[in-house]
Design goal:
heterodimer, A: alpha/beta, 434 Repressor (Amino-terminal Domain), Endonuclease, Chain A, about 50% helix, B: alpha/beta, 11 helices, 8 strands, about 35% helix
């Protein structure tokens, strides 16, 4: 089991700590330059710290808290504890050798999210993939990888799924294009097992699935798959995640988040209601079974 | 009060807009009858909407620039309105608890659901009566999409969602009747909703068409903004400059007249902070949000 911390991975801890340091500095009216001087660093170092992009030295945090007039020892202790957590390795660190850098941050964010809204056009979302389906998807992306590397990557993906049954599991709310449920990733048997698994997922209290049928023409998110992660901290904005073949984009500017939130809102409205999903999945299972019957010997 | 974007990522900004895409429904493969849904038309993010402005005032993240603009303007002029919104939600939770725990109500008709927040009606009701049935009614498609996915019942109880307008009680009753048994007592909830109806006569007509269908022993619970504070009058004026639908404040006396023919539950028509207050509410002043619960004899 993944030992899930109070609110997830180090990325989110750094973001939280950075946001709090910024608020404290602004409340005291200290410039970034003066703060940087205090910890023998540059203005841009302060900026990077406040944006959660770098790790923190405890000594620097203590110096800054003194400068920002934080006198309460309990508050010092709390922020130093947050510093330690921000510097501690994430649950996935043992998979480092098969993890692309750009994906590590996503795993941290996913781990800390309270709500994951996602739209998929091609594949079943990673958190819902069966072992065989995941293996087939991973082979598509890494066709020259060794057997053992594919095993490791599949194992990592399966480990991620424990998130949904953890004590602070996020809600996963997904719109799946009908194509996701029809494309024979891994072959008919693999897809069938995957669709069965999605049918079971419909009863999971933290999972909501909606299907966007082929019957719906062009729609609100013609751009492709994306996810929006929400965190249980008022100071953290939603983050849009868009994956590419060799990199990923994270968007958290209000304007960008608004665009994607509107797009997924429209998808939720247009797609079949969650209550209809089991019936649709059963229909697809029947189609898959019929497919075998039609196959000539 | 909006969460600031604090993750400044290296990735380039996506500039393409999804705003212009229109949706169409062509033939149907999965669905026999394509629903007449059109997300792009139904989710207009440019017009400030009640549910999303309240979401913003309550510290939520499901709002858009136009909603935040109204919210910010209100908070700038009437800084305590966000607190009033929160205190009104707290009253809702106490009223639902009273109805489930003390009045023994097991069926709730919550018209004007709003976006999910802490202590939604079914969560409170099912905490005290796990088998409670709740029908959420709203005419905002985004609210309904959120309700269907996130306001879901305990296994023992039931929740259902009705897309209907407050001005159409016949449809509300017809659809709600699929889940609720109108031979058993029902709690009718109009929380912060009647202010959207300008004329007292029309409001009374709506209330009575709904109540008349419910058996003796049913309840009617509500709150609304009152015209008892100049600052709230100002907030309503700002609201009505751009937000939809408009909001009309009433005096506590006019609110009391909505309960003609019903037995007012103690303490009658009072500030939301005075209705069977817990310690937190009791410590707050009387505010210009008035409420009452009445029983049908």
């Amino acid at each position: 089991m993944i030992a899930r911390q109070d609110s997830g991975g180090s990325t989110v801890r750094r973001l939280q700590l950075g946001a709090q340091l910024r608020a404290l500095r602004l409340a005291k009216g200290v410039s970034r330059e003066d703060a940087g001087y205090r910890i023998r660093a540059s203005e841009s170092k302060i900026s990077r710290m406040e944006l959660g992009r770098v790790s923190f030295k405890e000594r620097d945090i203590t110096d800054l808290l003194v400068m920002y007039g934080v006198e309460d020892p309990a508050e010092h202790e709390r922020l130093l504890a947050l510093t330690k957590q921000a510097n501690s390795p994430s649950w996935w660190h043992t998979y480092g050798e098969v993890l692309d850098n750009w994906f590590q941050q996503y795993l941290d964010l996913e781990q800390a999210a309270e709500l994951i809204r996602t739209y998929e056009v091609q594949f079943v979302p990673g958190l819902l993939q069966t072992d065989a389906y995941a293996r087939a998807v991973i082979k598509l992306g890494h066709n020259t990888a060794s057997r053992s590397e594919i095993d490791r990557r599949t194992k990592l993906r399966m480990a991620r799924k424990e998130l949904l049954d953890g004590p602070q599991a996020p809600r996963l709310w997904a719109v799946l294009d009908e194509g996701v449920l029809r494309r024979l990733i891994g072959g008919r048997g693999v897809l069938r097992e995957q669709v069965e698994s999605l049918l079971q997922a419909c009863d999971h209290p933290n999972i909501r699935l909606q299907v966007m049928p082929f019957a719906s023409g062009g729609h609100a998110a013609a751009g492709g798959a994306f996810s929006i992660l929400r965190f249980p901290h008022v100071e953290l904005s939603d983050v849009v995640y868009i994956e590419h073949l060799t990199s990923a984009i994270y968007l958290d500017k209000q304007d960008d988040v608004d665009h994607y939130a509107a797009a997924i809102g429209r998808l939720f409205i247009e797609a079949e209601a969650p209550a209809r999903t089991p019936e649709i999945l059963r229909g697809i299972l029947a189609d898959l079974d019929a497919m075998e019957d039609e196959k000539p010997d | 009060m909006a969460p600031r974007p604090i993750m400044s990522m290296l990735a380039p900004k996506i500039s393409e807009s999804t705003e212009d895409l229109r949706t169409t429904r062509k033939g149907a493969l999965v669905t026999e009858e394509p629903a007449a849904n059109d997300g792009a038309q139904k989710l207009d993010t440019n017009v400030p909407q009640t549910a999303r402005i309240w979401n913003y005032l309550l510290g939520g993240k499901d709002n858009f620039a136009a909603d935040r603009a109204v919210g910010d303007q209100i908070i700038e002029n009437v800084p305590h309105l966000a607190e009033y919104a929160r205190l009104s939600r707290k009253y809702l939770a106490r009223a639902v608890r009273y109805l489930a725990e003390e009045a023994g109500i097991r069926q709730f008709l919550d018209i004007g659901t709003g976006l999910p927040t802490a202590d939604n009606t079914h969560e409170v009701a099912q905490r005290y009566a796990p088998a409670a049935k709740i029908v959420y009614v709203d005419n905002d498609p985004l609210v309904l999409a959120y309700a269907q996915a996130l306001l879901t019942s305990s296994p023992e109880g039931a929740t259902d969602y009705v897309d209907a307008d407050l001005y159409d009680p016949a449809t509300i009753l017809q659809e709600a009747g699929k889940t609720l048994d109108f031979d058993q007592p029902v709690a009718l909830m109009l929380m912060g909703v009647l202010g959207h109806v300008e004329s007292d006569e029309q409001a009374k007509s709506i209330i009575h068409q709904l109540i008349d269908r419910l058996p003796s022993g049913s309840y009617f619970a509500m709150y609304d903004g009152a015209d008892t504070e100049p600052s709230v009058v100002e907030a309503a004026r700002i609201w009505n400059l751009s937000a939809e639908p408009k909001y009309h404040l009433r005096s506590p006396e006019r609110i009391e007249a909505f309960f003609d023919g019903l037995e007012l539950v103690e303490p009658g028509v009072v500030s939301v902070t005075r209705w069977r207050p817990d310690a937190e509410a009791a410590a707050q002043p009387v505010i210009a949000q008035y409420c009452a619960v009445g029983r049908k004899p």
